[in-house]
Specification:
Strand content: over 45%
Number of helices: 1
Structural class: mainly beta
Radius of gyration: 19 Å
């Protein structure tokens, strides 16, 4: 198989309000954490068990960043599609650390707000390019 795919889908709830930063070029970057919970019944005890996983999400897409800043808050339910990215950084003591994040890139990605407090779900997707599509109106049918 030629090529590769890096795509992640997450459906969960925000653990706190989004954090908004400004990059050196002036663009907005929004980050937040989403919790997903897996539940099962223990075969031996019959007890219900849960495991919560936290996913750090970073939105570089300016349109989606605006929407996240305006409409997301702690507890919001979201569906998102992005890609995984691991980056290396140093803590205050100079120790190398690694973190894996779900990235919503500048020209791709999808976020659907599923908060039941809204009257309608808000589905926001960005096509891979923001170039206008030239449509030929002289189609012969």
């Amino acid at each position: 198989m030629a090529g590769s795919i890096n795509k992640v889908i997450v459906l969960g709830n925000l653990g706190r309000d989004p954090e908004v930063r400004t990059a050196q070029d002036g663009s907005k970057i929004v980050s937040f954490s989403v919790a997903t919970t897996e539940s099962w019944k223990d075969k031996n005890s019959g007890e219900r068990k849960d495991h919560t996983e936290w996913h750090r999400v970073v939105v570089f897409n300016p349109n989606l960043a605006d929407i996240c800043e305006k409409y997301l808050h702690k507890g919001s339910k979201v569906y998102l599609e992005g890609q995984l990215q691991t980056r290396k950084w140093q803590d205050k003591d100079g120790i190398e650390k690694y973190t894996t994040e779900v990235i919503i890139p500048r020209f791709k990605g999808e976020i659907t707000l599923l908060d039941s407090r809204q009257s309608d779900n808000m589905d926001v997707s960005i096509a891979p390019t923001e170039q206008p599509i030239n449509i030929d109106d002289d189609i012969p049918f």
